[in-house]
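Explain this fold:

***
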Amino acid sequence: MDGKEYNSEEEFLKDYDSSIFEKLSLTTDILVVSISDEPVTNYRKTSKKHMSILLVKRTNYPFKDKWCLPGGFINIDENLEDAPKRILERETNLKNIYLEQLYTFGDVNRDPRMRIISTSYIALIDKNTLNIELAPNTSWFDVTITEKNNIVDIILNNGAETIKCQIKKELKELTTDRYQFKIISNDKLAFDHPLTILSGIERLKNKAEYTDIVFNMMPELFTLGELQQVYEVILGKKLLDPAFRRIIANKVTKTNKQKTGGGHRPSYYYKYKKWK
């Protein structure tokens, strides 16, 4: 084909031989995140919130019996945006939830089977309001993330099993404060999914203050105290009331309904302004 002249694109495509190129495969992995209530035994105490992610235990090689994010291969005739919706429903039974493209992971050796590139997505839900039964090999894991000297420790726990990962952050671009991540240790997660988890949580943290993304994790009605807890879990810090009010200014509207009981003073419910 090189050096040959063509009179039209149709003539070129008729003569085109795609077999001269090496093949690669494309997958998608979905990080499902929820901020949920911890169980409380004392009704006078306010229920604290924690961050959870949904993992799937693999039943086949490679990485058999290890945990991973919901994911799978993209079909040759499938639009990229349709693949995570199909795969998420197949792997977990979840559907019709918020999805946002996250990052593309393309390390040459990220999958032992072949050269596979993964376009990852982040999905946000309020798991307290789920009314479906999740797939049997899935489990919610609470997330704890700590960072010291650009070393990030991730601990995932579902009450029966603990997963630990450690990732190094290296500054990639000084002018834009962009980092690249490198896995130092990983005992029970398949593939390079610790990188997806950290990338997704950092994306959520960065967007929480300047977008309305948090409301994809909230029920229809909530108190300001509940909303503040969700922001604090995502941002990893306590918020003073003035700072919190600035974040949510013009985002919520007060209803005439109140939350009562539980040994606390009644609190008004609010809702996200843009929900219909």
User: Anything to note?
Assistant: The mean pLDDT is 89. The radius of gyration is 22 Å. The helical segments are 9-15, 82-92, 193-208, 224-235, 241-248.
